[in-house]
Amino acid sequence: MTLDTLIDILYIGAGNITFGNDNVLWNHSLRVERLLGPRLNVVAIIDPNYERYKQVLGQKLASSAAAAYKTTKYFPSLQSPGALDYLTSTNIDLFILGTPPLYRGTTYPNRDLELEILKHFGNKPTIFLEKPVAVTRPDQPLEVAHSLNDARLTIGVGYMMRYLKVVQKAKSIISKNNLTVSCIIARYANAYQRVRKVDWWTKSQQGGPIIEQATHFCDLVRYLGGEVIMESVKSQALEHWEPAGKLSHQCIDESAIPANDRIPRATTAMWKFESGAVGTLIHVVALHGIRFSNEITIYADGYQLRLRELYTTPTLYVRSPESDTEEKVYTYPGDDPFFNEMETFISVAAKRANKPLPDRCNSTEADEPPPAEEILTSYEDACKTFAMTWKIRDESEIKADYERSF
């Protein structure tokens, strides 16, 4: 394999989203290895936790992808001695940013990762950024977005559910039938029993479950229903201190988290879209085990489209004017939104670097949506989803503070 055919990747962040663990479905590195095979070259892994890096590298060197990691360098940060000298002398095709959102999405020092990359690497590399874009207030990532747009940086955000074939099928049904969505109802129930990451339970670290997790469904309702009128958003939450908010099977000691920094147990929200349509969201932290439960139902004149179990067995049920007793069912066995998403990013990065991949496989079934040719969520678009999640959180906290004052 010659150097000009290798796809050079830099990982910033060695956490679960990038390299996985024993109880999550996500692991970007496995998808990247499957997609690129011998064309993969991991230039470096950047993470302040050296022990985590050693664990990850040991696993990779003992795997079938070992060749991709034989020359991988380690740096605690971009600012580490020698890091920028080495990395800027290497033609990195794709940056995969899996750092906690606390360290990006702002113009503040040490919390401005995207701007640091732009400063030192220009707009040559393609960048994949995990959601949410930040945990700060929405005005900061919007300011970052303006700088990235002005520099014409190719950057997208990891809203992987847009890449699901059932979501693309629902999108095509709405488009082909010239439908106007009238109502969307979204439900997302989290399985919390094995969530051992204390940061997830701490609002100041990862924003809380609406900003960090339900953001996927906020993004999908925008993608399928159009823009939301922010002033119309109303919400309320079940807080940890209320009788119905007690949890019995947490694997972390929540008492170590300040009371005002603990996450709510359930949040409901409602809003209007700019089209006049209405929407609702329910997010719940309640289930045991590791499987989530989720569903989005879309209504339009004559149609009901139900997207179910988007993490495990994504399925689309469609009731149309053809029948009021039977639904058409669309499912694509083995469909993996993380794989589909990474396939698109790698394809875009390879094309921009003049290292094109072989033609991507076409759909084998007439009703199977093809792979996305372009990144489906821009940084600026992700900022709109981020603003929506903050609005939901703000509205619920106003009500919670009022109720607790009595």
Automatic annotation (TrEMBL):
Gene3D superfamilies: Dihydrodipicolinate Reductase, domain 2, NAD(P)-binding Rossmann-like Domain. Residues 9-159 form the Gfo/Idh/MocA-like oxidoreductase N-terminal domain. It holds the Pfam family ox_reductase_C. It comes from the Eukaryota. Residues 162-303 form the Oxidoreductase putative C-terminal domain. InterPro entries: Gfo/Idh/MocA-like_OxRdtase_N, Gfo/Idh/MocA_Oxidoreductase, NAD(P)-bd_dom_sf, OxRdtase_put_C. PANTHER family: D-GLUCOSIDE 3-DEHYDROGENASE, UDP-N-ACETYL-2-AMINO-2-DEOXY-D-GLUCURONATE OXIDASE. This is Oxidoreductase C terminal-domain-containing protein. It comes from Myxozyma melibiosi.
